[in-house]
């Protein structure tokens, strides 16, 4: 991980719920070569495709390729995140997912509540340059929530991030006021997203979240 300074990362995370950085180019290039060899399956209409090895329960997925898992475990143990580990302990749960976005795909404002984790990251991989006009922007925002913890319509956008090669975005995932979305993709350029989630096996909310929010929640 290309560090922007630990204090900068922490202040960004605790001020707006996210920070934007990058991983070394050689790591990004190696990951891109791997993802191009993956098989992807369609998900819900208008949503990105998902890697064939993914599972409906990421915390119980034993099929994550070791190259992806070791990369995420190393990322989660970086000095930039030492503050989190010092306060809460080393991560005992690391989930990995992989998506491929295509023209027309998008994701609305959401908070990753379906399998609660304390911290999440997104690593973007592509061999083409993305501009804002291409769409596929990761937008990170903040807004008020209702009595069920769902975000209301009035959302303030803090950042819009193009999914360029090697871009790394960290998000705190314990505050439902901090949400993110992906704007519609307007190009045929491939948009690969390697997602990491970091948390603890003792997280009890995980077992009740579907009961609270409904079986359709993902």
UniProtKB/TrEMBL annotation:
Fe2OG dioxygenase domain residues: 90-202
InterPro entries (alphabetical): Oxoglu/Fe-dep_dioxygenase_dom (IPR005123), Pro_4_hyd_alph_FE2OG_OXY (IPR044862)
Keywords per UniProt: Iron, Metal-binding, Oxidoreductase, Plasmid
UniProt GO molecular function: metal ion binding; oxidoreductase activity
Signal peptide coordinates: none
Pfam families: 2OG-FeII_Oxy_3
TM stretches of this protein: none
Superkingdom of origin organism: Bacteria
Similarity-based family: Belongs to the iron/ascorbate-dependent oxidoreductase family.
UniProt name for this protein: Fe2OG dioxygenase domain-containing protein
Species this protein is from: Pseudomonas aeruginosa
Upper taxonomic lineage: Bacteria, Pseudomonadati, Pseudomonadota, Gammaproteobacteria, Pseudomonadales
């Amino acid at each position: 991980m290309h560090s922007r300074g630990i204090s900068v990362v922490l202040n960004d995370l605790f001020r707006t719920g996210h920070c934007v950085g990058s991983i070394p180019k050689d790591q990004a290039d190696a990951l891109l070569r791997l993802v191009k060899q993956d098989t992807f399956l369609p998900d819900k209409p208008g949503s990105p495709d998902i890697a064939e090895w993914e599972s409906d329960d990421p915390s119980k997925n034993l099929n994550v390729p070791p190259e992806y898992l070791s990369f995420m475990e190393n990322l989660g143990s970086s000095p930039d995140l030492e503050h989190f580990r010092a306060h809460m302990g080393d991560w005992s749960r690391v989930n990995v997912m992989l998506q491929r976005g295509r023209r027309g795909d998008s994701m609305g404002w959401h908070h990753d509540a379906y399998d609660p984790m304390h911290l999440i990251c997104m690593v973007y991989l592509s061999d083409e340059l993305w501009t804002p006009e291409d769409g596929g922007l990761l937008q990170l925002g903040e807004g008020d929530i209702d009595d069920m913890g769902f975000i209301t319509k009035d959302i303030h956008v803090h950042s819009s991030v193009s999914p360029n090669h090697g871009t790394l975005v960290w998000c705190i995932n314990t505050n439902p006021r901090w949400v993110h979305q992906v704007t519609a993709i307007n190009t045929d350029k491939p948009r690969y997203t390697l997602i990491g989630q970091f948390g603890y096996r003792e997280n009890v909310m995980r077992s009740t979240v579907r009961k609270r929010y409904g079986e359709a929640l993902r």
